[in-house]
Specification:
By secondary structure, this protein is mainly beta.
Length: 273
């Protein structure tokens, strides 16, 4: 009897309140209202096993949105004293404990989670999806993908789930702008690691990104009435705040604009020509 999984069991016997299904060693109840029409003893039935509100193992012919160790989006139905309760398609909601939340969630929002078995042998949800993401994506270098942010790291960058199921990383130098947990971004695959995980970038290839960065800088200088109150020696945090660019990207774009005769640096300021 595999908790949290789809499996095919045999109808062992009928009772007034349902049917008992067997795997040859153990039996589990399928409630009467869920017994398919026309089945008889010895017939096979595909079911999903979970625990009911009394913590008894029970079978259902209704399949949840996520099975054990699968990742995907589930809607928060409500929040309570012990965590949040998620709608996963079964009568009993799935618990997302507070200690498995990477941020506090709100009723009505959809969040990326995985299903696991907790230490009390109950099915539960976790927002720490890294161990459950797949590493066999169909994507290759330079493919465009849709990725959902689920964790950020000052050391490594931004962890993302491509199509909500495949493991990916946006390294620090490839992350642009303020990427937050829950954000969905369009990204480019820069490489596929030996273990199958994807490295992504939200920036274009260098020659394409240079033009985009230069256009952004021109736009911001225009908003400053044609005079940017600092040059390319300004601290990185100022550049990040004003342009969401790294210092190197900013310097490359400014140099490009200077070569094209569109800006000049005088007195620690950048002027629009």
């Amino acid at each position: 009897m595999r908790l949290g999984e789809k499996q095919t069991l045999v109808i062992d016997r009928f009772k007034d309140f349902g049917a008992y299904l067997s795997d040859g060693e153990q039996s589990v109840l399928l409630p009467r209202k869920e017994i398919p029409d026309g089945v008889k003893e010895g017939d096979e039935v595909e079911v999903f096993l979970y625990r009911d509100s009394s913590d008894r193992l029970i079978a259902t012919v209704n399949m949840p949105l996520l099975c054990l160790h699968e990742t995907g989006l589930l809607k928060v139905r409500e929040t309570g004293r012990i965590g949040a309760f998620l709608d996963w398609g079964l009568p009993k909601d799935l618990l997302l404990p507070f200690h498995e939340q990477t941020r506090r969630v709100r009723s009505g929002e959809e969040i990326l989670v995985a299903v696991y078995i907790d230490k009390t042998q109950r099915l539960a949800a976790t927002m720490n999806v890294y161990p459950y993401l797949k590493q066999d994506s169909p994507y290759g270098k330079d493919d465009r993908v849709r990725a959902r942010i689920y964790e950020t790291s000052g050391n490594f960058g931004v962890f993302a789930a491509v199509d909500d199921i495949y493991s990916a990383l946006i390294p620090k130098q490839e992350a642009q702008g303020a990427l937050r947990i829950g954000d969905v971004v369009e990204a480019r695959v820069t490489s596929v690691r030996p273990d199958g995980k994807l490295n992504l970038s939200v920036r274009e290839k260098a020659y394409m990104q240079l033009e985009k960065d230069a256009e952004l800088i021109l736009k911001v200088i225009g908003e400053y009435d044609g005079v940017l109150p600092f040059d390319d020696k300004v601290p990185p945090e100022v550049i990040q705040r004003e342009f969401a660019l790294s210092k190197n990207a900013f310097k490359r774009a400014v140099g490009h604009l200077m070569k094209e005769g569109k800006v000049e640096i005088r007195g620690r300021r950048i002027y629009l020509i």
